Amino acid sequence: MADVSEDTQPAVRWRVPPAQTAVKIAAAVALAALTVLSLDDPQFVLLAGVAAVGATALAVRDVLAPVRLEADVEGLTAVRGYATRTRLAWPEVTAVRVDERRRLFSKTLLLEIETEDDLIMLSRFDLGADVRDVADTLTELRDRATA
User: Fold this and answer.
1) Do residues 134 and 113 touch, judged by C-beta distance below 8 A?
2) What is the per-residue pLDDT for 5?
3) What's the half-sphere exposure (Cβ side, CA atoms, 13 Å) at 119?
4) Contacts of 71 (CB under 8 A, 6+ apart)
5) Interatomic CA distance for residues 67 and 26, integer angstroms
6) What is the pTM of this model?
7) Which residue of 20, 43, 115, 126 sits 20 to 30 Å from the alpha carbon of 98, by its own alpha carbon?
8) pLDDT digits (tens, 9 = 90+) for 7-20
9) How far apart are alpha carbons 76 and 13 in whole angstroms?
10) pLDDT tens-digit series, residues 90-115
């Protein structure tokens, strides 16, 4: 959990891990190479090309908006959509919670930041940290703001 005591910097940031961005870039390059090497098979070119474009779009998002969530005692800034940053004051945030889903042999945890008319969901892949720790830090900052 990030420390938000009075002695430290009040703003806390969570970002996509750089290694994850590098993997997306490598996948985009590999898929583009497969597309070029398979020009004699139109169906494979289509599939590999679409996959290359998708991987590239994900990598570009990580480059354009690496910090997915930033919070301080006044509120938080979150990335919504592709790379749009939205600033929310703490009174606008109605709930911060962790949604846990179990399917077969896997467990998915998502940080949910709810406002009056929107829901922002972030995973550990967006934040580079355990979503439960992020939720605890956000709750602590929110409590300090209302105190």
Assistant:
1) no
2) 46
3) 7
4) 11, 12, 77, 137, 138, 141
5) 21
6) 0.80
7) 20
8) 444 689 999 999 99
9) 10
10) 999 999 999 999 988 889 999 999 99
Residue 9: exposure state from Cβ atoms within 10 A (0-12, 13-18, ≥19): exposed
CA 106-109-112 angle, to 5 degrees, is 155
Please report, in angstroms and rounded to a whole number, the separation of the first and last CA atoms in the chain.
21
Beta bridge partners of 127: none
Q: Nearest to residue 145, comparing CAs of 74, 63, 97? A: 74
Question: What is the topology classification, in CATH, of domain 12-16+68-146?
Answer: PH-domain like (2.30.29)
Beta-carbon count within 10 A of 87 CB: 11
Domain ranges across the chain: 12-16+68-146, 18-64
Tokens of 120: 């922002």
DSSP state of 14: E
Supply 24's token pair. Answer: 């997306």
Q: Are strands 84-89 and 93-103 parallel, antiparallel or unpaired?
A: unpaired
